[in-house]
Every structure is written in structure tokens, then in C-alpha cells.
What we know:
heterodimer, A: 21 helices, 4 strands, 3% strand, globular, B: 3 helices
Amino acid sequence: MNHWIIAPVLLPLxxxxxxxxxxxxxxxxxxxxxxxxxxxxxxxALGLMSVAATGESQIYYVGNWxxxxxxxxxxxxxxxxxLVLTSVLACASLLYALGGDxxxxxxxxxxxxxxxxxxxxxxxxxDLFNLFVFFEILLIASYCLIAxxxxxxxxxxxxxxxxxxxxxxxxxxxxxxxVYGTLGTxxxxxxxxxxxxxxxxxxxxxxxxxxxxxxLVVFGLKAALLPLGFWLPAxxxxxxxxxxxxxxxxxxxxxxxxxxxxTLIFMDPSKAGLSLxxxxxxxxxxxxxxxxxxxxxxxxxRATVSYLVVVSVGTLLAAVGLSxxxxxxxALYYLVHSTLVxxxxxxxxxxxxxxxxxxxxxxxxxxxxxxxxxxxxxFFVAAVAVSGLPPLSGFAAKLAILQAAQASAAVVSVWGxxxxxxxxxxxxxxxxxxxxxxxxxxxQGERRxxxxxxxxxxxxxxxxxxxxxxxxxxxxxxxQATAExxxxxxxxxxxxxxxxxxxxxxxTKE
Amino acid sequence: xxALFSIVIGVLVACGVFLILRARTFPVILGLTLLSYGxxxxxxxxxxxxxxxxxxxxxxxxxxxDPLPQALVLTAIVIGFGMTAYTIVLALKANGEFDSDHVDGxxxx
Lengths: 510, 109
């Protein structure tokens, strides 16, 4: 058993606990510990990814209890990819926070570590109830982080965010109760086997389908799918920049859960599963439309970026909803791209807002920013990437999704909505860029130059998007292999339920 | 007993949903609490209801209830408790900042 698998959970847990338990007199020590713990996640995640890339699903039996009785952690290609993405984004967001965001409220670093604990755990776990627990951990940390910095807008957004997610948690528990009551297990691999053999005329089939739909509602709420996504713009635009940047991965946790649960367990609509093409695709396309309208209508840069997150969720889930292997592969590539780029856009919006005095990030005529060349270049690169123009990763991602849609019956609506939405996003971003950098008064903005560390984290995320394009072939190959692994569920199930190694080790101990 | 059990869950959830849809933070928190009670009781029943049995394995008892839902409920209760505590603090903070207990912070509270 590879003990490194549990490291992405333990590392932030220990670091977060240490940060809370001791009274740290100087913030430098706190920062050092937090940065060290977060930076250590990168090599750990990359190491796990290098093993997962061979196609082997690594299983960690927590407490050495055999599956399906104990909790398992699973690292396959998808989990490894998400871990690497989280660690990279977390490093950038934490570096940015060192510029001063971390001092705006109490215990930023401890909360940040607990947030990572929840996110990493959700990506690793192979047990549905354990997924709920990790969701709650990441949620309680996010409840505190979203209010970090204080102020009326944040308190109001936090109130809505907390109440909505508490209701979501209740729905999650109801779904878990139904799943356990009908199938008698909560281990994902075991569930996948049991769902596949449910008779189509059995009494419980309706209940199982209801549970699958309830789970889709819960994950859709986390991912901000259309009828459940109205909390996102207010929450993200008012959050502190470093927090908003980290939250770029939060919607992806919901998408990951849909990918994991609905492609592994409830994947066969002819039995007790759901048709993602029927349920997810129309809602995802509607999400794109809503997000685009919001982005065009927004009068503030941070609001524009928040709506771009909504658009990215819609695009991502539309690709997932195609329910083909190519669609999944394109979705995974887009997931990495959109997380990096929207994360950097939140940081950039904050840098711009700081240099514009009282106007902040509002798209009004005002004094020009203090460093127009640096911020203008970063904004231009980010805008090209996020709107899907060549030569950056957004173009390759959208192209892959459009190609995958060709095989689908919904090809006309997917192509139409995605291309028109892309056009409007270009309009929205050009308008924002013009208002901020060109339509300015002659006076210069506040002399609050960008710190090196902030430029590094913002530029680093954009460089990640650039690398994703340069190594596009390798990235798409990995995404394709991941999609193939997701489609061939028997490998995952066999790996989790193969307890031979556990049993032999238990017997040798005796 | 099953009918009674279902009615209790139904009443708890209905009251919870009604209160959550109010516009003041205090009823909303009460509603969340009632909803989580209903959900916890529901989760408890997912291992089937067994009458005249022992909670622990005893030699003379043959029918045992499923122990797993009890563990799940315990976890859910603890999490729900913490979440409620946080929501109350947040509601107090909002009340202090807006001088109103409206969920949107509107005046006239």
C-alpha cells in the first residue's frame, strides 16, 4: 500500500491544526509553515500522477479495513489530475495572499489548509459518505474564507452561500439514506456493481433513480449549474481575491463529483442510472447562455469574471453531458484550462481594482491604472485565453469540445450556443479592457505598484495555461486516457474490491 | 410504527422548508435545524426499523439493527451541530452590520 496517497489529506490537516493550536507571535512563521505545506503538495501530487499515468488505480485502505467495509482512497488518472491542479492553484493563490490579503482577517492560513484538506479528500475518496464528510470540511472552511476580510457585501454573500449549502447538505444526506436503504452499501465501486444488477422491474429502481437525481442536484448546486447557480456571482465577486482564486477549483469539485458518481455508479439509463445527455446537457447549455448574458451586462470587472466562471461551468458540463469518450476528454482539458485562467483573472481584477482608487473594478471612466503596461498585457493574455481565441489553451479546449459534439444529436445547439457565447464574451472583455485601460482621464491612479509575488502568482497561472497549449498533445493524450479509464469502469471496481493484498497482510500479521 | 415515523419526518421537513423560505435569519436557522432533524431521522431509518431488539450484539438476541446508519447519523448530527453554530454566529454578525435581521440585509428589521 502506497502511503503517499493519504499525504494530500494529512499534510494540510496537520499544518492547519498546528496553525490553530499554537499562538504564533509573528506572521512570518505562520506564512512559512503554510507555504511549505502547500508547496509540498505539488511534488506529492505529481508523484501520484506519475504512477496513475501508467493506468494503475492505486488504492489506500484507511486503517487497513478491506473494501467495501472500510473507507478507501483511490488515485486514478482523474483524481491525480485534480490533485495536481488543486496544488498548483493553491500555491498561486497562497503566494498572492502573502501580498497582504492574509492579514485582513483571523486565521487565514489555517482555514486555507482546511479548505485544501476538504478539496483533496473529496478528490481522493472512494466512499460516498466520506465524500459528504469531505464536502462538509471544504464547505465549513469556505464559509469562513468567503467572509474573510469582512464588510457588508461579504457578510451578505456568506449568509446566502451558507444557507444554500446547508440545504444542499440535507439533500445530500437524503440521497445517501436512499442509496444505503436500497443498495445497502456506500462504497462507490460496490455501488457500481450493485446498481448494474438491479432488475429493471424491481421496486427499488425508482428510488435509486431518485437518489441519482438528488445527487445531481447537490453536485449541480456546488458546480453552479443553472437553476442552482445564482449564488455564485455575488459570492465570488465579493470574496477576497486570493480566496476567489482558490474557489476557481470549488465549482470543479461539483463537476468532479458528477464525473465520478454519474459515470461510475449511475451511468446506465436502461437500468438504474441517469442519462446525462437528457438531464445535464440542456441545463449546461442554459447555464452558458445565462453566464454570457451576465458577463455582458456586468458593470464591474469582478462580476464579469464571476459570470465567466458560470460560463466555464456550463461549457464543462455540456462537454460532460455529451456522454462520449471524446466529450469527457475535451471536458477534462477544458477543466484544467478554465481553472487556471479564471483563477488568474480574479487575481488580476484585484490588482487592477487596487490601482484605480475609489472606482475600484467598476467599468467607469476614471484615472488610469498606475502600471498600464504590465496589467494591460496580463489582462490581454488572460482575455484571449478565457474567450477561447488562438493561440492559447482556451482555443484548443473549445475546439476539442466542438469536435466531440459532432457525434452528438445536439450538435447544432452545442455549436450554436458555444460559438455565439464566445463572441459575446469577446465583446464583454473588450468592453471591460477598453473602459479600464483606454477610456481614462489624464490623472494617474494610485501609486500602489504590483508586488513581485503578486505578479508572479498571476503570471504563473497564465503561464500554466500557456504550457497547457505548448504541451497540448500530451495534455490531450492524458485527458483521453483519463476519459477511457472513466468509461471502463470494471478496472476501477476490480482495483477497489481486490482485497487480496489486505487479507494476506492481515493474516501474516497474525 | 413506520407510519408514525414517516409522518414525523414529513412534518419536520415540511416545517423546515416553510421556515427556510422566510425572509428573516432567525426563522431560517430554525428551519435549517428542523430540516436537519428530519434528515437525521430519515437517515436513521435507512437501515430498516427493527422493534424489540438490542443495539449491541448479545448472545440471546437474534435480530440486530444495522449499526452503520447509527454511525452515519452520529456523523451527520455532529456536522449539523457545528454548521448551525456557525450560521447563528454569522446571523448575529449580519444583524450587527446591517442593523436588520433580513436575510438580504435590507432595512426595516
